[in-house]
Task: structure prediction
Amino acid sequence: MLSLLYQEGPSTEGIFRRSGSAKTCKELKEKLDSGAEVDLACESIFVTASLFKDFLRNIPGSILSSQLCDKWISVMDEGNNEEKIKSIQRLIEQLPRANVVLLRYIFGVLHGIEMRSEENHMNAFNLAICIAPSLLWPPVSSTPDVESEFTKKISSLVQFLMENCCRIFGEEITSLFGEI
Result:
């Protein structure tokens, strides 16, 4: 999935904003869940993007860990960018290794898409709005007003992560997929 998103996402207008066919997504998700072979290259890239967001939303406790939710949200209240980056790196160290590896690849894809935002109309702000709710959610449900405020904060955090991904995850993030 990530490889396809890395290849096609940067040249796809509205990637992660537009949804794939709900029927196709449901059918493919059932096939993937059953372990059947699925050739996503034959599907719309919007279906792949929708399936990927669904995958992220189904990670127990979220990829950024709902247990660290308050700490993630408070990062954006810290002083300068250097302090924010150091705090983010400390939080990343607290995540399971599998989450960190997946985050690196996710931000490698998002970075590639953002770098071609003039073509795809998906800058860091737009991408963050679309993907942030799939990366972190509070450990308990709350009122719509509180959830709306949370979504704004996590979107701001994800935008910052994208804009500083090379400093946070390392410069090699731009070449994780090699020459595809």
